[in-house]
Amino acid sequence: MKSAVTIALVPELKTGPWIYWHDLEAGMAKAAALGFDAVELFTASADAVAPDRLAALCEQFGVKIAAVGTGAGKVIHGLTLTDPDAQVRSRAVAFIADMMAFGAGFGAPAIIGSMQGNAVPGVEREQALEWLVEGLNILGKQAGDQGVTLIYEPLNRYETNLINRLEDGVDLLKSLDNQYVKLLADLFHMNIEEVSLAESLRLAAPYIGHVHFADSNRRPVGFGHTDLQEVAAVLQQMDYAGYISAEAFPWPDPDQAAQQTITAFKQYFE
């Protein structure tokens, strides 16, 4: 397993659960100094950071790109894969495809979280799920062509009324016509929705491609009440080899949050 920490470069997301903010170079330098293997990036668009600059920073600091987020597509542009307007759905697919191509240049997957959207009033949930499947089929195939996976994230009930549990996420992935879409197991969302974090991980093991590392209150692991011992044991038993990435609030501040995260990662996974 490999460690990662989040860096957000989108001012509109300033209240979100990301450890480092605004300054890409400083965030990467701090991540490297603490011993993180990679950073997970949230940018406003696929061209917000020049690939050659990012490659140079990765080489300079010896860190990789774990994944790229797509949340700005919804926050800034209002795009989701389940919008009732077909043109909006098409633009959402295009935005994610661009982010996916950006990440693929670094061997990193793109993450679909908030851009999955909701079944809005007047739209049946089954219809919204059909649109979601349609988008994931298009994007999953493109991911495969680019040599990466696409990461789909079940969110808690307060953020989406579509897929909330890993079990339902597995059923969704089984309905796709490609195998390039994997699940993101976010421990914060799971704390709200799952009966047992460990058992849910165990049952979804073949489909998990990324893990978000946060405590019950979405602070860094160790600042809440989640029992990570059994979770860590299951991830080790299933030979999970992906990233354990800190998508958590920068509490009490980014530096202490990052230090707490790497300390917890070493405690449970090394």
UniProtKB/TrEMBL annotation:
<dbReference type="Pfam" id="PF01261">
    <property type="entry name" value="AP_endonuc_2"/>
</dbReference>
<dbReference type="InterPro" id="IPR050417">
    <property type="entry name" value="Sugar_Epim/Isomerase"/>
</dbReference>
<protein>
    <submittedName>
        <fullName>TIM barrel protein</fullName>
    </submittedName>
</protein>
<dbReference type="InterPro" id="IPR013022">
    <property type="entry name" value="Xyl_isomerase-like_TIM-brl"/>
</dbReference>
<dbReference type="InterPro" id="IPR036237">
    <property type="entry name" value="Xyl_isomerase-like_sf"/>
</dbReference>
<feature type="domain" description="Xylose isomerase-like TIM barrel">
    <location>
        <begin position="29"/>
        <end position="265"/>
    </location>
</feature>
<keyword id="KW-0413">Isomerase</keyword>
